[in-house]
Amino acid sequence: SAIMFAILLLALICHFHGAFTLPNPAEVIPRGVFPAPSEIEARQGGFYYSFWSEGSGSFRCTNGAAGSYTATWGGQGGGFVCGKGWNTGGNRAVKYSGTYTPTGPGYLALYGWTTNPLIEYYIVDSYGLLLPGEPWTPKGNFSFEEGTYQLYQSTRVNKPSIVGTATFQQYWSVRTEKRVGGTITTGKHFDAWSKAGMRLGGHNYMIIATEGYTNGKNYSSGSSSITVS
């Protein structure tokens, strides 16, 4: 009967459902697309791992145990960002350690995104060359027990973001004395940005990132080994 056929068809669908389940999008991160927060965080001892790249350079980022990762990069053209942190950013005392040996444009930074408004932000602890892709507008400076930071704001027009190609603001805190390792208390920077008229939105992911990129004839290369705790 039609009823028996429908029951049999439903049983077959349920039995074979697992065989046709699509892969978790979190496990496939194509070049040129920013990864979105996902279940990968829970599988890495509570740390979220992100790796994005574009262009013709050679970029390798290896996801280590717990809060660790390594990166090596070189070549001519393109850029990358990779790192370890949290699915959802916010006010946190972020401790990290490791090594960072860059040549050319790039940063070692606490890096993250917010939405509504869409903001890409950096708290830069060290760098190779400070050669931003867009002009920086100085927004003052501030000092506290972790160091002195210069504040900047810039605009990206029709560039990759966590919501696809978009136009958005970048917020920057750049440490006046470079360091690799220590504590970054994000709330102190968020408060300083707010006082400078730099408003954040709802937090997306936040990582301790290694970034390298090409600016004109200035190419980036180097290596890093970072552990976040």
Automatic annotation (TrEMBL):
Keywords: Carbohydrate metabolism, Glycosidase, Hydrolase, Polysaccharide degradation, Signal, Xylan degradation. Residues 1-21 form the signal peptide. It comes from the Eukaryota. One of its GO terms (molecular function) is endo-1,4-beta-xylanase activity. The active site is at E120 (nucleophile), E211 (proton donor). Pathway: Glycan degradation; xylan degradation. Its EC number is 3.2.1.8. The keyword Metal-binding does not apply. Residues 35-224 form the GH11 domain. It catalyses: Endohydrolysis of (1->4)-beta-D-xylosidic linkages in xylans. GO terms for biological process: xylan catabolic process. It is an enzyme of class 3 (hydrolase). The keyword Signal applies. Belongs to the glycosyl hydrolase 11 (cellulase G) family. This is Endo-1,4-beta-xylanase. It comes from Hymenoscyphus albidus.
